[in-house]
Amino acid sequence: MIRFGVIGAGRIAQTFSTALQKMGGNLYAIASRDFEKAQSYQKQYGYTKAYGSYEMMLEDPLVDCVYIATPHGLHYTHMMLALDYGKHILCEKSFTLNAQQAQAVFKKAKLNNLFVMEAMWTKYLPVIMETKKWIDQKIIGDLQSMEVSFGFDAEHRRGSRLFDPAMGGGALLDIGVYVITCAIDFLGIPKEVKSTVELDPSHGFDLKEDIHFTYEQTSAHLKCSLLEKLENVARIQGSKGSVEIIDFWKAEHAIFYNLKHEIIHEIKIPHTINGFEYQIQGVISSIEDHRFESPVITHQSTLDVLKIMDQLRQSWGLTFPNETL
Ligand SMILES: NC(=O)c1ccc[n+]([C@@H]2O[C@H](COP(=O)([O-])OP(=O)(O)OC[C@H]3O[C@@H](n4cnc5c(N)ncnc54)[C@H](OP(=O)(O)O)[C@@H]3O)[C@@H](O)[C@H]2O)c1
């Protein structure tokens, strides 16, 4: 059984730990900069080992795969370190600060025959996969346009990684990554990208943005915001009808309509645990099959999204303090 080690005992490490525990997976080690915090996660989730330093955990030869649950600004450093110790990797989104960092990680992983995957869990959700199949079968005809939004009021989290430029803070890398991934997943890579952005007046990071993708036959309008709750729906219009994926990033429900807006089909698949189980199973199967890349979240799919985020930030004049290699 793949023995997982977790780097960073924060919020998302809890979601991962809950899923792995309920799946009956091997919760081998948890590492925090604070040993007491690691011990409290160990007690809560049943990790075999607790470490007070990330490097000490990486030195443990029994760790097979590392789940990196630190802020995006640290992913590159933590992945390169984990690869030095010969570990397979599941790394939280956004995978790195930019495409260049991701390319370096993938290159090093390939050289060392190690598995690496971005934890873009949405792509593994059964509702997303089923919706794609129905779209491919032309239930809504030829695709014409798409709208995707993801926003929440993050004001109460001022002072957290979300608003820290050194950690890759801002809306784009935290939630923009979902709307862009979703549009690319359904429509492909756009021919043209345009956007408007609201930057934080004192720190320069992005608080909200409107992004327009243009394709040969279709278009997509994407919105994300750390200032307000948005609809958080992905809606695709086709020549024969439309589909709405409710809370698309953690999708459990999609509704298909005809042109009269009558429901013609619904997909409802509640998570068996919390939604992370599907991507975790994907990691386990890939490693057991000796694959170095997931067939669902490919290295290329991670790079495609990062390249668009690079392009957007370049047009906004937005760089992160530590984004050089
Ligand atoms: N898939 C999803 O649905 C989802 C949801 C939320 C977040 N995420 C992703 O998961 C990552 C972590 O997010 P989170 O919300 O869990 O963050 P968080 O609660 O702030 O936890 C991040 C952890 O990283 C460690 N860390 C190491 N150096 C740090 C530093 N300089 N500043 C802050 N933390 C540092 C800390 O762990 P120790 O103190 O234990 O060392 C901290 O608890 C992000 O990349 C985010 O995009 C994904």
Short description:
Helix content is 35%, strand content 25%. With 325 residues, it is an alpha/beta fold.
Task: Label this structure with key terms.
325 residues; alpha/beta
Textual characterization of the structure:
With 325 residues, this protein is of the alpha/beta class. It has 2 domains: 3-121, Rossmann fold (3-Layer(aba) Sandwich); 126-270, Dihydrodipicolinate Reductase, domain 2 (2-Layer Sandwich), CATH 3.30.360. It is built from 9 helices and 14 strands. The chain has helices at residues 11-23, 35-45, 54-58, 72-84, 99-111, 126-136, 171-187, 276-288, 299-316, and strands at 3-7, 26-31, 49-51, 65-68, 88-91, 116-118, 143-151, 192-199, 206-214, 219-225, 234-238, 241-245, 253-258, 263-268. The strands form 2 sheets. The protein has an 8-stranded mixed beta sheet, covered by helices on one side. Strand 4 (65-68), helix 4 (72-84) and strand 5 form a beta-alpha-beta unit. Helix 4 packs parallel to helix 5 (99-111), helix 5 runs antiparallel to helix 9 and helix 7 packs across helix 9. The protein is globular, with a radius of gyration of 20 Å. The chain starts with a strand and ends in a 9-residue tail after the last helix. 46% of the residues are buried. The mean pLDDT is 97. Bound molecules: NADP nicotinamide-adenine-dinucleotide phosphate. NADP nicotinamide-adenine-dinucleotide phosphate binds next to helix 1 and helix 4.
Name the bound molecules. Answer: NADP nicotinamide-adenine-dinucleotide phosphate
CATH hierarchy class name of the largest domain: Alpha Beta
**Nearest-integer average pLDDT:** 97
Please estimate the helix content: 25-40%
**Gross geometry:** globular
Strand content: 15-25%
Given the structure, what is the number of helices?
9
According to CATH, the fold-level topology of the largest domain is: Dihydrodipicolinate Reductase, domain 2
